[in-house]
Amino acid sequence: MSYLPEGMPSPHPTVDDAPFWQACQEKRLVIRRCEDCRLFYHPPLPTCPHCGSAHVHWKPVSGRGTVYSYTIGHHAVHPSLKGHSPYNVSVVLLDDADDVRLITNVVDVPPEQMAIGLPVEVCFEPSGEGQMVPRFKRRASADTTSGATA
């Protein structure tokens, strides 16, 4: 079961982000990384936004992070969300991808327990049209260490 209801629009991959979405279909999280300046960045672009290099590749990351920011939605911003509130829209700072932050949802935390700094890990859920999307769930308290995969 998905955190958001059926009918929510699915992402439509472009030439720049198709490998990201393909990895999501395989329940893997990959982020673009520049081989010259060694920095990760997202959203994916054909060249590095830090140094301009076209020598960029997709690198797997652990999927661990912390809630950097969030908001609790009480109003339907899409027709399929009618009657499906409250819900969170969260920004997760990934542990092992420099300053990369993903806009997502934390799927297993009630609104009153959402908090900045909450340790989370990626999980994948199908969107309305079947595309797997990265969402996050609370990280088990014993699993709070970050594992770099650079």
Short description:
The chain is mainly beta.
Give an overview in words.
With 150 residues, the chain is mainly β. The chain is 5% helix and 33% strand. A five-stranded antiparallel β-sheet has the order 6-5-4-7-8. It has a three-stranded antiparallel β-sheet with strand order 2-1-3, covered by helices on one side.
Ordered list of secondary-structure elements with their pairings:
Elements: H1 18-25, E1 30-34, E2 40-41, E3 56-60, E4 64-73, E5 87-94, E6 101-104, E7 119-126, E8 132-138
Antiparallel strand pairs: 1-2, 1-3, 4-5, 4-7, 5-6, 7-8
SSE sequence, one letter per element? HEEEEEEEE
Order of adjacent strands in the largest pleated sheet: 6-5-4-7-8
Beta-strand percentage?
A: 25-35%
Give helix % range: under 10%
The quaternary state of the protein chains shown equals: single chain
Number of helical stretches of at least 4 residues: 1
Structural class by helix and strand composition: mainly beta
Rounded radius of gyration (Å): 16 Å
Mean pLDDT: 92
**Shape annotation:** globular
Distance between the termini: 32 Å
Report the uncertain regions. Answer: 144-150
Would you count the extended β strands for me?
8
